[in-house]
């Protein structure tokens, strides 16, 4: 059965909902682990006032009993505490008060195109759903997908590679799971301490200049079995599924898999990962330029996915725009915003990568109970001689 992840809700509405359908029964969930991911999404130097209001937790309302999945759809709800301040403006039902409309679309946001597409005269009808606040629901659902992957020996981590013009130096050795210990305690979730300090300073300088800052994050998945995805059709190729999922995150404008742009500029002899075999390790590679993907399938190496995030379009010093009611020149809408959310975007990308990988495992292994999936995985690894 294919896995489905659906979210609903608006930024300042009563709350957000995520439904995950297609996970097997018998999977143990850890409430603290889910809420820990919710809190991680709120981390990072450069966050704005909204994070002082919200303390996100995921309330499971369906599909789980006594900490184990039942095999049906799993529903999770995330309350918006800030709704108390927006009840008149965002109430699902008519209110007596006169609620002013918003007519000032922001360059770089969904505002103007959404107004055209959906035939509304109020930009708030668009911006509330387009807001990155929606990703809180994705992280809740992604945490459930991570629990399934963890039961199959897979761990997912993320870190920040660059913020603005500051880039962490390349690492001499391949990343391991243990390298990520303490990454969430870093103010920008960067693995290089010197680069982290420079990133924090860069955010401070740009914030004082009324600017927002983008950057690049990386997600790494460890413990994947070879053969997830397929070469047989374009929609089955895992490269495209991962790229689409990560690029669906608000403000993400580019995704790379492995050393994509570096190998594009390299000769073939330096672009591919040579194959070796010995009795103790079995088949293995000494490099991972492909980022764990060949022919649309995982090849057993760690999966490496990077996302490039543009600066946020809501600025404390707004850009020029047009009032859609009068068509006169105006400044774009100014709302509460963040200076940088690259550290948080990495956590959201973990959730999206987890969803795609969990879906690929469900396709491959099937099973109504999580033990069925485990047993199918063991049989598959035995057949191909894979040593995890």
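Sequence proposed for the structure above (388 residues):
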């Amino acid at each position: 059965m294919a896995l489905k992840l659906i979210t609903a809700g608006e930024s300042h509405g009563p709350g957000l909902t995520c439904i995950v359908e297609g996970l097997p029964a018998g999977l143990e969930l850890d409430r603290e682990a889910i809420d820990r991911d919710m809190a991680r999404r709120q981390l990072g130097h450069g966050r704005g006032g909204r994070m002082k209001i919200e303390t996100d937790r995921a309330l499971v309302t369906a599909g789980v009993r006594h900490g184990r999945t039942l095999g049906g759809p799993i529903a999770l709800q995330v309350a918006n505490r800030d709704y108390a301040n927006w009840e008149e403006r965002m109430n699902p039902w008519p209110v007596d008060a006169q609620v002013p409309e918003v007519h000032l679309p922001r360059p770089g946001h969904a505002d103007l195109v959404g107004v055209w597409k959906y035939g509304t005269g109020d930009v708030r009808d668009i911006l509330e759903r387009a807001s990155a606040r929606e990703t809180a629901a994705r992280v809740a659902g992604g945490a459930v997908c991570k629990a399934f992957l963890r039961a199959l020996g897979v761990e997912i981590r993320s870190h920040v590679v660059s913020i603005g013009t500051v880039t962490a130096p390349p690492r001499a050795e391949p990343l391991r799971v243990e390298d990520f210990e303490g990454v969430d305690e870093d103010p920008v979730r960067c693995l290089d301490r010197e680069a982290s300090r420079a990133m924090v300073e860069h955010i401070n300088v740009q914030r004082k200049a009324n600017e927002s800052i983008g950057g690049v994050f990386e997600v790494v998945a460890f413990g994947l079995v070879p053969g997830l995805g397929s070469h047989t059709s374009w929609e089955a190729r895992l490269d495209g599924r991962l790229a689409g999922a990560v690029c669906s995150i608000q403000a993400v404008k580019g995704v790379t898999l492995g050393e994509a742009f570096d190998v594009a500029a390299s000769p073939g002899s330096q672009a591919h990962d040579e194959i070796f075999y010995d009795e103790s390790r079995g088949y293995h590679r000494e490099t991972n330029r492909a980022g764990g993907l060949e022919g649309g399938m995982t090849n057993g190496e760690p999966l490496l996915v990077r996302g490039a995030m543009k600066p946020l379009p809501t600025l404390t010093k707004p850009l020029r725009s047009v009032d859609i009611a009068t068509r006169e020149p105006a400044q774009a809408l100014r709302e509460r915003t963040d200076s940088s959310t690259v550290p948080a975007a990495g956590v959201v990308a973990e959730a999206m990568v987890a969803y795609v990988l969990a879906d690929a495992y469900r396709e491959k292994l099937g099973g109504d109970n999580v033990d069925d999936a485990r047993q199918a995985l063991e049989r598959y690894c035995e057949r191909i001689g894979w040593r995890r």
